[in-house]
Amino acid sequence: MRLPFAPAKLSLSALLLVSAPLLLQGCSEAPQQQQGQMHPAAVATMTMETHDAPFTIELPATLSGSKEVEVRARVTGILESRNFEEGQRVEQGQSLFTIDLEPYQLAVDRAQAALDGAKAALVQADRDVKRLAKLRAEKSVSQRDYDNASSANDIAKTDLAAAKVALKEAQLNLEYAQVKAPVAGVMGREFVSEGTYVSGPDLLLTQMTQFDPIRIRFGLSEREQLQMRQDVKNGSLTLPEQGHWKTQIKLQDGSLYGQTGEVNFSDVRINPNTGTSEFQAIIPNPDFQLRPGQFVRVELSGAVRKNAFIVPQRAVLDNGTGKFVYVVSKNEQGMDVALPAPVTVGEWIKKPENEQYQNFWLIRSGLKEGDQVIVDGMARIFFPGMPVNVGQPAANPSHAE
Fold first, then answer.
1. pLDDT tens track for 377-391
2. Maximal CA-CA distance, the chain
3. Which candidate, 193, 197, 195, 178, places its Cα nearest to that of 104?
4. Would you indicate the residue range of the signal peptide (predicted)?
5. pLDDT, tens digit, 9 for 90 and up, residues 267-300
6. Partner of 264 at 20 to 30 A CA spacing, among 42, 47, 280, 347?
């Protein structure tokens, strides 16, 4: 039996012609429906205000002893003993070596005896002058005899002074025979063993290093120095007085060394091989935790950025071509939307642990006063211009520490 209302067969081309307008209409309406149905992303913002922010520099550095001392004997003789262990910490004035003391002790005794004789001779000369002065007044002796006595008295005084100098020299040589540490520090290895004849200062006995304080040496590039001078000139940067940067050491594990110091030397010359000039800082090292030759990083602080914008570090994103932040703006319908704003960043500003945000970026360009920068909720922004719902504003620090 043939059905009275059997469906007509359509060719594939006719079917496509009928369905194409419907498909195009559906595609054009889909983004609008999706955008209209998408809920605004919940974000928190920070309103941009200018601040005086600390300017810090972090650089690689090398440690060295504040004094590298070569220990030499000032007198000659047979080396009798070594009075330290290699690598031992010693105090200033501590005996390191002992040279045969007996010849120098005998020289002291001889000088002391000569001094005693000079004192006795002066006493006798004083008596002669006093006695002849009385006789001369009575005209019992000639003027020549009195003059001779006076001259003998003057010579006796000179001999006494020379005897005192000779005794002091003998005592000094006796002290030099006990070779002492010129500074407090750590001993190196010995170069001369007991029983060796020490010929004087030309023979190196050992070396020692003063660890407290310790010296930090690092280089600052000519480009960075030029940029800082330009910033100082235009009023956006204030440097420490007389270049005395405060210094703190960051160790290899990222921890900060407990003591701080300051820069005490900056070389005016530029090293042509590295393009840097050398800086030096001194920092206390009472526990000898730091050692010469150690590689560390040094943080320089004490400079101030004037009228700067700062944002939390996490608010600054990178799209592969540069850094940017999301700023809240109004679209044509008056809705709050997130728009990317390219920025040029400066230094990291590290804030204390008890602050709401620990790390901040200093923004050199790309923002203006009053901009609302999104600092929380960036992961909910799927495309530029996406609607956002601004919640509780993030705390805007009154100053950066």
1. 988 999 999 999 998
2. 187
3. 178
4. 1-24
5. 888 888 888 999 999 999 988 889 888 999 999 9
6. 347
